[in-house]
Known about the structure:
Layout: E1 2-8, E2 14-20, E3 26-31, E4 33-38, E5 48-49, E6 51-52, E7 55-59, E8 72-75, H1 78-86, E9 90-94, E10 100-103, E11 108-112
Antiparallel strand pairs: 1-2, 2-3, 4-11, 5-9, 6-7, 7-8, 7-9, 9-10
Amino acid sequence: MAAIYLLLANSALMIQRVDFDESGGSKFVMRKVLRIKRVAPVESETEQPLVTFKGYKMADPGGPDRPRPSYAIFHRTLEDVAGGLQRGLSLWMQEPQKGEALIPANKLRVVYS
């Protein structure tokens, strides 16, 4: 069975998987993001994506000014954040009672349902 992944741009960026069976038919499988976590977490690390009143906080990885607040990019849903990670954006993560850290996309893993 072959599969193709499609990115659909509508009110929320959703990732769909199209499965093709031997008879030539296809079906769409919606994938919902459960969580985003580090690829190699430090022991006892419980970081979560930073959520503000504007949404999940991300940054463009280019240039030395990426941590500046004026360059922040906000997404309302985890599906939008997953799309941003696929485009190479970095994600601000925060551990409870600790500071924020800007984590590059290649150090994060998206867990789907």
